[in-house]
Design goal:
By secondary structure, the protein is of the alpha+beta class. The protein has two domains: 5-161, Ribosomal Protein S5, domain 2 (2-Layer Sandwich), CATH 3.30.230.10; 167-291, GHMP kinase, C-terminal domain (Alpha-Beta Plaits, 2-Layer Sandwich). The chain has helices spanning 70-82, 104-120, 126-136, 140-145, 180-191, 203-211, 214-220, 226-232, 236-245, 267-280; strands at 5-22, 28-47, 52-56, 88-93, 148-152, 157-160, 167-173, 222-223, 250-253, 260-264, 285-291, 297-298. Strand 9 and strand 10 (260-264) form a beta hairpin. The longest helix has 17 residues, at 104-120. The chain is globular. The mean pLDDT is 97. Bound molecules: 4-diphosphocytidyl-2-C-methyl-D-erythritol and adenosine-5'-triphosphate (ATP). Adenosine-5'-triphosphate (ATP) is lined by residues 63-64, 68-71, 92, 98-106, 108, 139, 177, 180, 255-256. It comes from Streptomyces olivoverticillatus. InterPro entries: GHMP_kinase_C_dom, GHMP_kinase_C_sf, GHMP_kinase_N_dom, IspE, Ribosomal_Su5_D2-typ_SF, Ribsml_uS5_D2-typ_fold_subgr.
Length: 300
């Protein structure tokens, strides 16, 4: 067991996030349409005397380096399942915004799991790896699979979706993060006693993905957590407005936020909206990415 393994893992945007009422286990049933986009973390594992995590990148200071890190939890879970010790050095090159609603921690969990699996040669099946991913977090299975998928249950039960072309996005990164449980709780609070229908994927949205039709997708995107994220972070309204004003086809909060996502027609449209957002002063940083892209992939 020598050498090192590096895995590349994408961020996600939720093109539809339909949220049901609260379940007795504290989660919410979802119809969660994930799209993997070309912003990546790289996770490298190599044998070491003990389990330790290091992280580099612009947001590295916000990433926990103890065993609460999802990458460390993934190594521990795989080691326990296959009777190994989890003595690895996990290094994360982090490019995905932290606590931004783009599944950065989930990406690192899936990446470390795949990297340790390759390093240790466990022979785990894809189903076994997906099962461990689901124990780590609701978004983690999608980070492994990538592409586009419908997530049912709490988001972990995935059905791959066909996509007929590339979709171009601009992401506006906000200052600070939002806590995912706090955003779900705010969604429940805003809904009050209203009857919540069972979440369903939109047929128009699935058609738009299949056709690779950005305008049709823009007309169909929705995020039931958006009002909650804006309620907790009212300044997001100005960011959304700045992107709309610059000609984005659609403007939405990414997952639980506070990153906002802007669907644009093509790479030139992305540059225009990115420049406008940058100069609007309504966000900390602007990123451009297209999707779908593959899920966690071993590089070496
Ligand atoms: C907002 C999304 O990113 C959209 O993809 C996900 O639903 C969040 O997925 P995640 O970060 O992997 O979340 P988990 O680590 O599984 O759960 C964190 C917390 O988020 C809330 N949570 C999460 C998923 C879900 N379907 N219902 C929930 O209510 C719960 O309070 C849970 O305790
Ligand atoms: N490897 C990791 N990278 C980043 N955050 C991590 C990691 N492991 C654990 N965390 C914790 O998870 C919290 C959420 O970070 P993350 O970047 O995953 O948020 P997110 O993108 O909003 O997640 P999601 O979209 O899945 O809800 C962080 O505040 C941090 O405390």
């Amino acid at each position: 067991m020598t050498g090192s393994v590096t895995v590349r893992v994408p961020a996600k945007v939720n093109v539809q996030l339909a949220v049901g009422g609260p379940r007795s286990d504290g989660y919410h049933d979802l119809a969660n349409v994930f799209l993997a986009v070309g912003l990546h973390d790289e996770v490298t594992v190599r044998p070491a005397d003990e389990l330790r995590v290091t992280c580099a990148g612009p947001d590295a200071a916000q990433v926990p380096l103890d065993h609460s890190n999802l990458a460390a939890r993934a190594a521990l879970a795989l080691a326990a399942r296959y009777g190994r010790d989890a003595n690895v050095h996990i290094h994360i090159d982090k490019d995905i915004p932290v606590a931004g609603g783009m599944a950065g921690g989930s990406a690192d969990g899936a990446g470390a799991l795949l990297a340790c699996d390759a390093l240790w040669g466990t022979g785990a099946s894809r189903e076994e790896l997906l099962g461990i991913c689901a124990e780590l977090g609701s978004d983690v299975p999608f980070s492994l699979v990538g592409g586009a998928a419908l997530g049912r249950g709490r988001g972990e039960l995935l059905t791959p979706l066909p996509v007929g072309g590339a979709f171009h996005w601009v992401f506006a990164v906000a200052d600070g993060g939002l806590s995912t449980p706090a955003v779900y709780a705010e969604c429940d609070r805003l809904r009050g006693a209203a009857d919540i229908p069972a979440p369903e994927a939109s047929a128009a949205l699935l058609d738009a993905l299949r056709a690779g039709d950005a305008e049709a997708l823009a007309a169909a995107v929705s995020n039931d957590l958006q009002d909650a994220a804006v309620s907790l972070r009212p300044s997001l309204a100005a960011t959304l407005e700045a992107g709309r004003g610059a000609g984005a086809l659609a403007a939405m909060v990414s997952g639980s936020g506070p990153t906002t996502a802007f669907l644009v027609p093509d790479a030139a449209g992305a540059r225009k909206v990115a420049d406008a957002l940058q100069s609007s002063g309504t966000c900390r940083a602007v990123r451009v990415a297209a999707g779908p892209v593959p899920g966690a992939t071993v590089l070496s």
